[in-house]
Design a protein that fits this description.
Isopropylmalate Dehydrogenase, two-stranded antiparallel ribbon, 12 strands, ten-stranded mixed sheet, about 375 residues, 13 helices, alpha/beta
Length: about 375
């Protein structure tokens, strides 16, 4: 159970032995790694507590937009709400330039389903990583610059000026802060059940608040004050959790020099996106790091690696991030033992080091890695 316990992801009790999962491969390598995650779920050893899975294929993505004029069809949203207990999202090839009528479907999903926190565990695997770390990044998932309110104007000299509005609210900041402090407590409780030699984090639980309020004193100032107030106004509940702060630029520097200094990190949307992608380099590859888009009533597992169009369709994609994201999905829905089996199988394959995709310096295919994990299950 060690691998699961390091992640410490919140879960509700499982309500049913039948689980319907929406599969949204979307673009690029999403069409390779999401089937891999499905194969692993279907390969779980059957027990009384293991759910029976039904899968629904759902459409979204830039390629779907190019064919149909919409990136996130209403049918996908309706079926997620009415038929699914959770979902797995692959990747989206959002263009770097403006395309009329297009907006990212994963950003839209987060807003429509109120998936207000992106939970990204980044932990080293024994025998694989030189640096020891056990970090959980909580990224606020609905605001900041990702509200996508941009415009171009022309100034008095005839030059174009681009503007982007940034939104930080007390409501969203507080929700992210509460999740961060609650997860710090849960991770500490779970660690206590491990032998001390297996605990990657040895100290008191800690929440690090990331901001840039020395420059953005209004918006980041509100974020900082609101998250700090979660502990300051609930001292009895969170007295066992330390709290500190990092300016986002120094956070990046210190994370690469001293990643073992961080337990739970909570950040606004843009900073959290950048930090969590950077943290993936500390454990070997973006292809290893999972995430879960979490709300109070729904969760969408999502690997963090993007659509990687340069390797799409070549069986070079690392399926581990998607498979671990499937584990996070199960964990959230209350199937902790099955999630643990997935984590242990993945860590076993990684530790062995014989079967690995090109991003980790190997030559194995997506399917070969998937099969190895299924065999360990």
């Amino acid at each position: 159970m060690a691998s699961l316990l390091r992640r410490g992801f919140s879960s509700a009790a499982a309500q049913s032995n039948k689980v319907t999962i929406g599969l949204i491969p979307a673009d690029g390598i999403g069409r390779e790694v999401i089937p891999a995650a499905r194969q692993v779920l279907e390969s779980l050893p059957k027990s009384e507590s293991t759910p029976r899975f039904d899968f629904i294929h759902l459409d979204a993505g830039f390629e779907y937009f190019q064919k149909n004029g919409v990136a996130l069809p209403q049918e996908t949203l309706t079926r997620l709400r009415e038929e699914c207990q959770g979902a797995l999202f692959g990747a989206v090839s959002s263009p770097s330039h403006k395309v009329a009528g297009y907006s990212s479907p994963i950003v839209a999903l987060r807003k429509h389903l109120d998936l207000y926190a992106n939970v990204r565990p980044v932990a080293s695997v024994a025998g694989v990583n030189q640096k020891q770390l056990d970090m959980l990044i909580i990224r606020e998932n609905t605001e900041c610059l990702y509200i996508k309110q941009e415009r171009v104007e022309t100034d008095a000299s005839g030059q174009k000026v681009a503007w982007a509005d940034r939104k930080i609210t007390e409501f969203a900041s507080k929700r992210a802060g509460v999740m961060a402090f609650n997860m710090a407590l849960m991770r500490d409780k779970l660690r206590q059940s491990l032998p001390e030699s297996e605990r990657l984090w040895q100290g008191k639980p800690k929440v690090t608040i990331v901001h840039k309020s020395n420059v953005l004193s209004v918006s980041d100032g509100l974020w900082r004050e609101t998250v700090r107030a979660v502990k300051e106004n609930n001292q009895a509940q969170y007295s066992g959790v330390d709290m500190d702060e990092q300016l986002v630029d120094s956070m990046v520097y210190r994370m690469f020099r001293e990643p073992e200094a961080f337990d739970v990190v909570v950040a606004p949307n843009l900073y959290g996106d950048i930090i969590s992608d950077g943290a993936a380099a500390l454990v070997g590859s973006l292809g290893l790091v999972p995430s879960a888009n979490v709300g109070d009533h729904f969760v969408v597992g999502e690997p963090v690696h993007g659509s990687a169009p340069d390797i799409a369709g070549q069986q070079k994609a690392n399926p581990v991030a998607a498979i671990r994201s499937a584990g996070l999905l199960l964990e959230h829905m209350g199937y902790a033992a099955d999630a643990a089996r997935i984590y242990q199988a993945v860590d076993g394959v990684l530790s062995e080091g014989l079967i690995k995709t090109p991003d980790l310096g190997g030559k194995s295919t997506t399917q070969e890695v998937t099969d190895a994990i299924c065999k360990r299950l």
